[in-house]
Amino acid sequence: MIPTTKRVRRIVAVLAVPAILLPVAACGSEDEGSGSSGASGPVATVSGQPGEQPEITVEEDAAVGDETVSQVIDEGDGAEVQEGDFVRVNVVGRTIQGDMELINTWKSASGDELATEEEGPRPQVIVQAGTESALPAVATEPLIGQTVGSRIQVEGNSVDMLGAAAQQGGIPEDDGIVWVFDIAGAVSVDPEAAAEGEQAAVEEGMPEVEAAAGEPATITVPEGEDPPAELREQVLIEGDGPEVTEGQALVVQYTGVIWDSGEQFDSSWDRESASAFQIGTGQVVQGWDQGLVGKHVGDRVLLVIPPDLGYGSEERGGIPADSTLVFVVDIVGAA
């Protein structure tokens, strides 16, 4: 469990219900190499400049076919997305017949317009191209082979585009979904990647850390030591990659334990895959946003997060209320 905030969980509840694909304008050219079907083409029309909120128009009584259709509306000049890449996107998604907006990263949860990217990073969504992740693989396959900076439209039936989430959200099987993705960044990461190098000794009062290759870190909380009242952080291994900045997609391996009990409550190593999220935009707990921005790809970071920068007085997934949390985080990629 990545330590997400409530707001992010609301987004992920829609997204992890596979919701991150885009609809494209009729003016684009159909991309035969990105999973497009032999259908006549998209039924939605997308307008608007790249980088700006797209407008999606669907004619009355329009219906999608049985196959997924994708289209490149605008082509970027960045790196090419590979299968399995972690891709950071702005996205608008809506149903075809029900006219229900599923997600819009240009708007807040209350529907207000968010600041422009020039004014600061905007919350975005992270998916894995062509891999079962926040969205079904079929929904993100059309991103493979496209370039960063591109706007892509994807349409298909609700089951393919959202998986089980379609039924959970009350979307009929015969309805369609259209997604419009603006690809903002992408990074390839080995699922077994970890920080490499000699680990520094932990500072006084900090938990001891032993990290065997490919396994959750063993974190030993100092016996009889009261948890710190403020965020404490230490870089245990210094990487030589780029500095992490707000708004990036961050790919990490991590292990988390509860200070009071020393019990592990989660580790990406147990899932045999790195985890990804957007950093510095309030999508994770404040302790991660504050402790990981400014670090470097390749770093191993020890974080001790007090309750007010974690989950506060709220019980979360078996973590007691008012818990101090300890994480060992390997930063293995950023985009």
Automatic annotation (TrEMBL):
GO terms of molecular function: peptidyl-prolyl cis-trans isomerase activity
UniProt xrefs under PROSITE patterns: FKBP_PPIASE
Record key words, sorted: Isomerase, Rotamase, Signal
Disordered: annotated segments: 28-55
Signal peptide start and end residues: 1-28
Reaction(s) this enzyme catalyzes, per UniProt: [protein]-peptidylproline (omega=180) = [protein]-peptidylproline (omega=0)
Highest taxon, organism lineage: Bacteria
Domain PPIase FKBP-type positions: 247-335
One Pfam family named in its UniProt record: FKBP_C
E.C. number(s) listed in UniProt: 5.2.1.8
Biased composition (Low complexity): 37-48
Gene3D superfamilies per the UniProt record, alphabetical: 3.10.50.40
EC class (word): isomerase
Record-linked SUPFAM superfamilies: FKBP-like
Family listed: Belongs to the FKBP-type PPIase family.
Protein name as it appears in the record: peptidylprolyl isomerase
Lineage: Bacteria, Bacillati, Actinomycetota, Actinomycetes, Kitasatosporales
